[in-house]
């Protein structure tokens, strides 16, 4: 396993249940963190908890290209390289096709597919200069196995998987690695706004999901974990 000590890590979605737990694990392992989240107040709380200076935080909507450009400038003002990019941001809209609106469909694509495109577009060139780096996305199990009511969500996550597989082909002569983590049900604030009866007590805990990402951040330089699936053992979809 590779040491995280001194590694420059960009965590997007650091204010979520998984992202905040991950930030704490990474900071405890000696990584140099730059944290991004939508909610400025929550972001400041996570930064304080992890000992990250406020200069290495940025509150933003990652589906806005201008904001991502500003993030890139601010990031490289604070850190001179990027070793790991973790995108733990995203939204879930679970609705039947007859109630799903055009706005909700496009919002799903913007947050779960267009935003990761903007992030990779902004930070991949720096990795290509050094011919090394690691990009971790979280398509979720619904990016492999769709379910009723997940037309918008699955469309965005299947698109994310396809996009990253294509990018992997572009960079296969470098040491830049791409990992997709397919998470099943995770008990996180993700479910707070979803009108669906679920047994959250039987889900994977946010802290355990964060440990999986933390583990993936330490994968050995001689290999790559292209995919990992983590889901509740009593509700396996794959």
Topology of helices and strands:
Layout: E1 8-12, H1 17-28, E2 32-37, H2 40-50, E3 57-59, H3 65-78, E4 84-87, H4 102-130, E5 132-137, H5 151-170, E6 175-183, E7 186-187, E8 204-205, H6 206-216, E9 227-230
Parallel strand pairs: 1-2, 1-4, 2-3, 4-5, 5-6, 6-9, 7-8
Strand arrangement, largest sheet? 3-2-1-4-5-6-9
How many domains would you count in the coordinates? 1
Summed over residues and divided by their number, the pLDDT gives a mean of 91
Count the beta strands: 9
| Low-confidence blocks of residues | none
Approximate strand percentage: 15-25%
Named CATH architecture: 3-Layer(aba) Sandwich
Shape: globular
CATH-derived topology:
Rossmann fold
Number of helices: 6
* Quaternary form: single chain
Order of helices and strands: EHEHEHEHEHEEEHE
Rg estimate, integer Å: 17 Å
């Amino acid at each position: 396993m590779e040491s995280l000590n001194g590694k420059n890590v960009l965590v997007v979605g650091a204010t979520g249940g998984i992202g905040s737990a991950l930030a704490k694990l990474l900071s405890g392992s000696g990584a140099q963190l730059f944290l991004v989240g939508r909610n400025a107040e929550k972001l400041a709380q996570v930064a304080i908890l992890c000992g990250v200076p406020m200069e290495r935080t940025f509150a933003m909507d990652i589906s806005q290209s201008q904001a991502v450009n500003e993030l890139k400038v601010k990031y490289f003002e604070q850190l001179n390289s990027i070793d790991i990019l973790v995108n733990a941001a995203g939204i879930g809209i679970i609705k039947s096709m007859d109630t799903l609106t055009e706005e909700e469909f496009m919002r799903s694509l913007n947050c779960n597919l267009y935003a990761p495109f903007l992030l990779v577009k902004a930070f991949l060139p720096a990795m290509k200069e050094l011919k090394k780096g690691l990009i971790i996305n979280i398509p979720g199990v619904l990016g492999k196995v769709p379910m009723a009511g997940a037309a918008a969500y699955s469309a965005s996550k299947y698109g994310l998987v396809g996009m990253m597989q294509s990018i992997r082909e572009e960079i296969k002569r470098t040491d830049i690695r791409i990992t997709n983590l397919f998470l099943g049900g995770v008990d996180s604030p993700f479910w707070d706004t979803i009108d669906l009866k679920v047994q959250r007590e039987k889900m994977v805990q946010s802290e355990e999901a964060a440990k999986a990402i933390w583990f993936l951040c330490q994968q050995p330089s001689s290999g790559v974990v292209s995919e990992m699936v983590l889901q509740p053992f009593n509700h396996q979809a794959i």
